[in-house]
Amino acid sequence: YIDYITADIKQCVGSFVFLWGQKQERTPTWYGVILENGKNTESAQVMQYLWTGEWPKHRVPTMTGLTINGLSGQDNVHLIEGHVCQAEVTIEHPRHEILKYRWEIMAEVDKSVESDGGDFEPSPEVIWRDSSDHSTTKVEFFAPSAGEYRLFVYVDDSHDNAATANIPILVESASFMGLIVHRIKKYFSLMT
User: Fold this and answer.
1) Average of per-residue pLDDT across 173-180
2) Is residue 154 scored above 50 in pLDDT?
3) Cβ–Cβ contacts within 10 Å for residue 156, how many?
4) Global pTM?
5) Which of 41, 40, 18, 49 is nearest to 31 (CA)?
6) Distance (Å) of CA 129 to CA 25, 73, 146
7) Is the dihedral of CA 104, 153, 100, 67 positive or negative?
8) How far apart are CA 51 and CA 24, in angstroms?
9) Residue 119's pLDDT band (cuts 50, 70, 90)
């Protein structure tokens, strides 16, 4: 933005943000800079800084990591249905206030209802939720039935700000063959 929009005072006549609000498209947190519940994300605060030169008084918590069983989203997380899993989020937050964590697992958007070009897309079903009122950076859950899902974490502060992250996960059948495939993949991932 700084290098190409504000730096080009001869050719650039302005800019706009897409999407100032919330929209479900593949995930409920992909496009919008404000969440469905009205909380500001880090994107909204960055735009405030770029437009005014000043950061908001109360900055959004910053997520520096999200893992499931020690694996990040880049690790192609595979789980076995019914197995206990642990997710953990790492947060940087300059103020020492209590943060509220909300964890959800949603099914991936069914291919038959995926939007095209910004058309309406229904939100997928939330199949598990943990909305503890205490500050917890870790949560345990049982892997759902075989299929494609995403684990979401929302971290809210007391000033209408929220940080979000998600990891796509593939849950495989607990059948004997599914277990063998899982073990082979795990073995070869350790070899690299």
Assistant:
1) 73
2) yes
3) 20
4) 0.77
5) 18
6) 20, 20, 18
7) positive
8) 26
9) low
User: Is the CB of residue 6 less than 8 Å from the CB of residue 13?
Assistant: no
pLDDT tens figures, 44-92: 888 889 889 999 999 888 889 999 999 999 999 999 999 999 999 999 8
24: pLDDT confidence band, cut at 50, 70 and 90? Answer: very low
Instruction: Tell me the β-bridge partners of 182.
Output: none
Q: Residue holding tokens 């504000």?
A: 6
Q: Which domains does the chain have, with CATH numbers?
A: 2-191 (2.60.40.10)
Q: Strands, DSSP E only, in the chain? A: 62-68, 77-80, 84-92, 100-107, 126-130, 138-142, 147-156, 162-172
Residue at token pair 């974490």: 153
Interatomic CA distance for residues 169 and 64, integer angstroms: 19
Strand partners, 13: none
In this structure, are residues 167 and 153 in contact, taking their beta carbons and an 8 Å threshold?
Answer: no
What are 87's two structure tokens?
A: 């997710």
Cα gap 92→161, rounded to integer Å: 14
Residue 17 makes CB contacts below 8 A (sequence gap 6+) with 33, 47
Out of 17-31, 56-70, 113-127, 130-144, give the one with best mean pLDDT. 56-70
Q: What are the backbone angles phi and psi of residue 152, rounded to the nearest 5°? A: -110, 145
